[in-house]
Specification:
Elements: H1 2-24, E1 57-62, E2 72-77, E3 84-90, E4 107-109, E5 116-122, E6 128-133, E7 152-156, E8 159-164, E9 171-173, E10 197-199, E11 210-212, E12 219-221, E13 223-225, E14 239-241, E15 282-287
Antiparallel strand pairs: 1-15, 2-6, 3-5, 3-15, 4-9, 5-10, 6-7, 7-8, 11-12, 13-14
């Protein structure tokens, strides 16, 4: 019985001593490593799960913001020590339609913003990539339809057939007896156009207006429409007119945005106008 009591007492004394030493320990005295004790070259970047020497950065590619932008295409070299890349691309917006009939009112459908696509890959430092942020198709349409937006793309090491297509064109319909609906072309399946995830915005609804039938469908009021932006950018462009002989789609829109339509509210020769071009494409590369 005495032996057991002594053993318990000894264990309690050892526990109290150990606890007091743990409580006395602090950051400055615990696990101190003297650098002089390390062998030369015993630690390098490979010794760490996340290299302190790795590179991180973001690179954007885009052309001049103007209605005849050629975009931006170049050969880009990844910085040294890069191991991964995330590519994001936006196509150019579709062009706006012309006011294609000089003798009556129209329905108008505004152009769609460019599509979005993204892809994550593994890479190595100093690998090269051909990068092209889309320009705009230089057509200022006077027809009942515009031109589709141009495509942004990237090709290179461990990446092929990756692109973001351009937006749908604007349209005009001079027939008031035909119903028009907007295009739901926003969904993109994983793997489309070489990406992991892609999407597009819904094209705008067809415009309506008040009109005077006794003038032979020649006098309309209160037109309004909104070309859509490219996904995840959040730009806005709107156009409207109450009464105007002709309003061309002359304004420059933001990157990736759908272009402006020409609009008219009266009949008569010389009152047809041209649509504007969409916004140029973008490419963003995040490397790490």
């Amino acid at each position: 019985m005495v032996t057991v009591d002594r053993a318990v007492k000894a264990a309690l004394e050892w526990y109290e001593l150990l606890t007091s030493r743990i409580l006395m320990a602090n950051y400055s005295s615990y696990k101190i490593v003297n650098g002089d004790q390390l062998q030369s070259d015993s630690l390098n970047a490979a010794s760490f799960s996340s290299s302190p020497n790795s590179s991180y950065g973001v690179k954007w590619f885009f052309g001049t913001m103007c209605r005849c932008s050629p975009g931006c295409c170049c050969l880009w070299t990844a910085p040294s020590n890069v191991q991964n890349m995330w590519f994001q691309a936006w196509g150019a917006g579709g062009n706006g339609t012309g006011a294609c009939s000089c003798s009556r009112c129209h329905h108008y459908e505004a152009a769609q913003g460019g599509y979005y696509n993204s892809k994550m890959i593994e890479t190595n430092g100093n690998c090269q990539y051909t990068v092209c942020a889309a320009g705009v198709y230089p057509c200022l349409s006077r027809e009942c339809y515009g031109c589709m937006g141009c495509t942004s793309y990237v090709n290179g090491y461990n990446l092929s057939n990756f692109c973001a297509i351009g937006g749908q064109r604007g349209n005009a319909n001079p027939s008031w007896t035909e119903a028009c609906t907007s295009d739901n072309a926003c969904c993109r399946a994983p793997g489309n156009n070489g990406g992991d995830f892609g999407m597009g915005n819904h094209t705008s609804a067809w415009s309506n207006s008040r009109h005077d039938t006794y003038r032979g469908w020649c006098h309309c009021y209160h037109y309004g429409q909104s070309p859509t932006s490219a996904p995840l950018i959040g730009t806005t462009a709107m156009q409207s007119t109450r009464e105007c002989w002709i309003r061309c789609g002359c304004w420059v829109v933001p990157y990736g945005h759908g272009g402006m339509n020409a609009m008219t509210t009266y009949c008569g020769d010389g009152h047809c106008g041209q649509g504007g071009t969409g916004g140029g494409g973008l490419v963003k590369i995040t490397y790490f």
